[in-house]
Amino acid sequence: MTTRNLVIKVTSGADAPERCAQAFTVAAVAAASGARVSLWLTGESSWFALPGRAEEFELPHSAPLPDLIEAITATGTITLCTQCAARREITEEMLRPGVRIAGAQAFVAEVLEDGTQALVY
């Protein structure tokens, strides 16, 4: 059986909590289902790359964001957009464990891999 790849770009954070939570939930469920997941944090979701920020996020009837992040990083990757990090003055040293910073070239390379599906939230 071929492993499926799923790349998810989440652009919203606390400004659009339902859309944000949906992206993290889909990523965690896909990871638990055996897909190779790559979650990209852009725009307002960039803040969740920092320790403690996901713990502040609450949405009724949604799984806690830290639990979803743990499920995603158990088998997949979480990447913070280079430009989004720079605009927010976020550096590698500031990131929560399991998060990396990379740019558009890495995103495009992941999306163009055979067997990859991409979603944007």
TrEMBL record:
Q: Which InterPro entries match?
A: DsrEFH-like, Sulphur_relay_DsrE/F-like
Q: Which domain of life is it from?
A: Bacteria
A Pfam family this chain is assigned to:
DsrE
Q: What is the protein name given in its UniProt record? A: DsrE family protein
Species of the source: Actinospica durhamensis
